[in-house]
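Course exercise 7: structure representation. Students receive a sequence record and must write out the corresponding structure in token form. The form below is the worked example handed out in class, using Glycoside hydrolase family 2 (586 residues). Read each field label carefully; the graders check that inputs and outputs are placed in the correct fields and that the protein name is recorded exactly as given.

STUDENT ID: A-19
EXERCISE PROTEIN: Glycoside hydrolase family 2
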Amino acid sequence: MTTKAYTKDYPRPQFVRENWQNLNGEWSFRFDDQNRGESENWQENFDGTHTITVPFSYETQASGIGIEEFHPHVWYRNSIHIPKEAEGKRTILHFQAVDYVAKVWVNGAMVGSHQGGYAAFSFDITPYLVFGADNHITVKAEDSSSCTQPRGKQRWTKDNFECFYVQTTGIWQTVWLEYVEEQSLDSVKITPDVDRSIVRFDYQVNGVEAADDLRLEAIVTLKGKPVKRVSLMIDRPCLTVEVDLIHEANGPWKKSLWSPQNPNLYDVEFVLYADGQVKDRVFSYFGMRKISIEKGKVLLNNVPIYQRLILDQGYWTESHLTPPNEEALIEDIDKILEMGYNGVRKHMKIEDARFLYWCDVKGLLVWSEMAATFEFHDRAVEAFTKEWLEIVLQQYNHPSIITWVPFNESWGIASILHDQRQQKFTEGIYHLTKSIDPYRPVITNDGWEHTVSDILTLHDYVETGEGFLRRYANKEAILSNETTCNHWKYAFADGYGYRGQPIMVTEFGGIAYQSDTGWGYGHQVASDEDFVKRFEGLTRAIKSVDDICGYCYTQVTDVQQEINGLLTEDRKPKIPLDKIKAINLA
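STUDENT ANSWER:
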């Protein structure tokens, strides 16, 4: 089951147009370690030394290069034919992700730049094109080993260490084009209101000044049946409309809510008219669901939900952070569901939008987590804040996302326990996130040393269920900072305390089989029997503790030197999936 306008490999499934062009594939490529390219005018006279397969970074085998050592400056070029029929329209060049600074030229002319390795960005390249001819797109990507840039699990040293892996440099998600009219939809922010049975559309429209008679229509359907059609006149770039969704499409006057058990999605088609002519047609979808917190519980659609999450870092052997294809994303989601989990904590990575789409379709809950910096500095604050706000807006419409996690384990804010500057930084990010999205919980800072946070999340890699129960026999001591929650970290930073938030254990387990080359948490196990015994003991212990309303196991798959996944890095189960499911659902 998919949404009405689902298009395989379409890179932005929340905002679909029919007229687009995928630019993935072979590009010319070159390293620029001395940073000579711009001064030598490579943007016009580019002589590649390699061929690279976009969107895979040069560090991966899938790119066709597979060189893992760090190179701070890399260049790409591709020649594309722009059809004559596109003349008179706007041609938009999209990058789903480039790490870390991207500079883009078309036919030798600079069209723009973007900083941030995880957020998508676009440029209107119309003025630089020759229609009916081949055009050159040149991209320079600048990366660094700086710990003031959001880098997540990407190493900043020569070799992998602990839980940090080969870096990702340059283009690592899809590059594509689309053609739009002067009058077009720029974005639609979709907000469901379950209690009032309405959905709110916040529109941004391009080209309003150039049209006298501009009208926007929204056509909402559910499982192919009409629900509502609304129309409004456009007289300014930003408008809001609320749509009543009480209907009979799914039985008399029933709400069709989104949940893991029933991931109902409404299709919506937005049609923009100028002087009676269709100027833009965009397909989207939404889920009617509500996340709230009440009396120490997380509620989904006003009903308490026990979250069985698994940590997901989204790495593949041949392609690292880039999914090898859309089928690989679907396979991961299906196996997570088969193991009895109802959600993922997407760890230190902003995932491909197609992953979120399939979570929406299949009903997998998502905690969306920002890639961390690892040094507290004014530059880090600025870079982190700018990119995080971009990401929240870009991911806002996905019903599967139920929690925002800007900070993890005091990474980038190492002195937050006592340092008021770092504490205020997390407070600021919390409130900025709430200003864009007041409807989802925000966690600062996942694992320990919380400041303001809607959920109290604790990380604990104690090895046995008995050990866990001993530690949490006196929860009040942990909640009051009388004792640490995992040997050495306190639950709250100085000056902050427990306010009745829901409590979850959002990292535990990390069990690894015996290995001379990789690592897991605690002692490695020698047999399947030992693995299952330890896994079951920990899971049952957490579920038995009153006031803990969910958990997150570490992790889905092995990642490079970290071999504590329930699956190998090539997605082979270590333990039969039905055994894991039985323990999760017991």
